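Researcher: Next sequence.
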Amino acid sequence: MKKIKKEPIIRVGILTAPQITFKLNGSFKGPNNKLYDGRKLVAFLKGKIFFDGNYLDELSFEPISEKCSIDVKDVVIGINFHWERKEKQRFKGALEFIIEGRELTAINHITVEDYLTSVISSEMSATASEELLKAHAVISRSWLLNPILNQPAKITRTGRDPSLPNRIIKWYERDAHTNFDVCADDHCQRYQGISRITNNRAEIAVKSTRGEVLTSGNKICNARFSKSCGGISESFENCWEPKHHAYLTKVVDNPTFPEGFEQDLTIEANAEKWIRESPEAFCNTTDKQILGQVLNNYDQETTDFYRWKVQYTQDEISELLARKAKIDFGQIIDLIPVKRGDSGRIIELKIVGTKQTVIVGKELEIRKWLSESHLYSSAFVLDKAEIIDGIPQHFTLTGAGWGHGVGLCQIGAAVMGEKGYTYDEILMHYFKGADMKRIYS
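Model: Next structure:
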């Protein structure tokens, strides 16, 4: 991977709405090079961007000094998750407005390193250990620059085959966004401006790793991370496009494999024992001080993430699946794992109903169908109870981990940092065979 001449500037989509209220803190150069400051409102009207009495095709504001900032009102965070809410957020850099459909999207133009300082503070607490913050800076930088500097990204894909209507395989990528580089929410990386930067520790971590990325085969790694792998990380191809990455494969989140378990969790019996019990792992912790490093206030609303249970009545699960999948299954008879990944996550699930049977995948689509927002993970086993005329009246899902489980496990990495592992040791634990390089200074 060759060095690049200068630090890139990226475009981050932060809010889409029919109208957007914002405040310019300091002087910004706007339309016709006029200087603007203070509270402003833009709206989508008559197919144009309506601002300051004018109908425009494009609109942007450039700060005249680094001390300037922008407050944007009602930015939605945790979109489609159970913690979804609106916040006022503050941003550095420039602000651009574009038309998308019948709404406006606010796009923040920001340097990579300033973006990362916010990401590290948004994805976790800035009070996290120095080594964890540095490790996260490297993987977040790698994930960001991978499609920008390596190759064009691939659009969200579906494996739905018209000849197989009862098999729906779908996965999601950040490149669903075509008008900017990344979004600001969990779909990409959490970027909540400078609002989350409560001290300078994240800034120090970003500066100390400036320009550093993970590489493999002379390309920037498509680095991934999730909250908790549940004891074993998942392979990339089981969650996204069927492409193998040697650095995104099964990793046991422990110095040694826990005794009393079999390693091949693609086998149902092995997965069931693994999920129903609580094997040793870096991410198997209840230490509130460590969890507070990784989980922001709204994340801490989620409990029992290493091992968890979700219960549904027959009425609840049949109504939920009909609504989320837009398929009338009738009453639900069974949920049968067809294919499990290396972490025990279900990659393909057969849903058996009284009216029809459908196989669904990959892991995120399964999680979307089986929860109002997102099931913690697809690594679960099923218990059915009170079976009347072959129809279960109660379902209990016992599961492991939080998120897709690919790449770095944030809670496991936090524990490793507390145990004295350095940031490069943390990275090499989760990204086997990868290298680290500085691509700009």
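Model: Residues 130-150 form the longest helix (21 residues). DSSP finds nine helices and 24 strands in the chain.
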